[in-house]
Write a structure and sequence with these properties.
Blueprint (H helix, E strand, L loop, with lengths): L1 E6 L1 E2 L10 E5 L4 E4 L18 E4 L5 H4 L14 E6 L3 H7 L22 E6 L10 E6 L5 E8 L2 E5 L7 H7 L4 E5 L15 H11 L3 E5 L1 E2 L6 H12 L5 E3 L4 E4 L1
Parallel strand pairs: 2-13, 4-5, 5-6, 6-7, 10-11, 11-12, 12-14
Antiparallel strand pairs: 1-3, 1-15, 3-4, 8-9, 9-10
Helix pairs in contact: 3-4, 4-5
């Protein structure tokens, strides 16, 4: 199984990277985490006719701006888009004219996507998908959700955007890889729901994960990749098996 980081910035695209998007290439499925600007690179990596599942953590623009580029793809297998239960209204607000092309075959969506789209609203457990996935509400402005997957015998936990909260342990516990946001460089007491490298590392240690990968670096704070490396070193003092993601980085699991 391969994990490719297509977009690792938070807030906006800059010379350090595109906004949030990650591709998991497992044996039987492609799993895409969020649809920031980095999603435009999907066709560089999706070469097989495996089912494609796109999971949206929340609907802030840096995580969904890539919906506007979906029309460039020709996925013969179609696309399954997954979100937390109750978030369909947010998708419907964003992904249709006049903002972009529609994703469903409706009369009003004359120029809809050139492939089939299937929508899924997920609960925390017992979701009707072909592999185990938990959709766990975390702490972020206007609600955000993380995802916990079991693929190829491995557990992958993805935070989306969040501050540390009670459900963070539920998300991360005993994961083979925890992919966690790292918007801040130092701890801040704010209402947005973000973390710094120290908080992410403490969560990884407490949750007994095997590897922590930091991503979603706030583009206004982490203006160079060198600063990301500083965040990695800070986290490694608490949790040694920590990496800092950069665009197009590939991790084998």
């Amino acid at each position: 199984m391969k994990i490719i980081f297509l977009g690792t910035n938070g807030w906006y695209t800059s010379p350090t990277g595109n906004t949030a998007c990650i591709l998991i290439d497992s044996k039987d499925y492609y799993v895409v985490l969020d649809a920031g600007n980095g999603i435009y690179k999907l066709d560089q990596y999706i070469k097989e006719n495996k089912p494609i599942y796109l999971f949206i953590s929340h609907f802030h623009i840096d995580h969904v701006s890539g919906f506007h580029t979906l029309a460039k793809f020709e996925f013969k297998q179609g696309l399954d888009i997954c979100m937390a239960k109750g978030r369909r209204k947010d998708l419907d607000t964003l992904v249709h004219p006049p903002y972009t092309v529609g994703i469903e075959n409706r009369p009003e969506n004359v120029n809809n996507l050139p492939f089939d789209v299937r929508l899924h609203e997920l609960l925390e457990k017992n979701n009707d998908l072909p592999f185990p996935v938990s959709c766990i509400e975390l702490f972020h402005a206007y609600r955000g959700h993380g995802y916990r997957f079991e693929l190829d015998g491995k557990i992958i936990a993805y935070s989306g955007d969040t501050g540390i909260c009670e459900n963070s342990i539920k998300l991360a516990k005993n994961a083979d890889i925890l992919i966690h946001e790292c918007s801040y460089d130092v701890a801040k007491d704010d209402q947005w729901g973000h973390v710094d490298p120290t908080a992410a590392a403490k969560l990884a240690k407490r949750s007994n994960v095997k590897k922590l990968i930091l991503t979603h670096f706030d583009a206004s704070i982490y203006t160079t990749l060198k600063k990301r490396n500083g965040a990695k070193k800070k986290a490694q003092k608490i949790f040694p098996n920590t990496a800092a993601a950069r665009d197009d980085m590939l991790v084998n699991l």
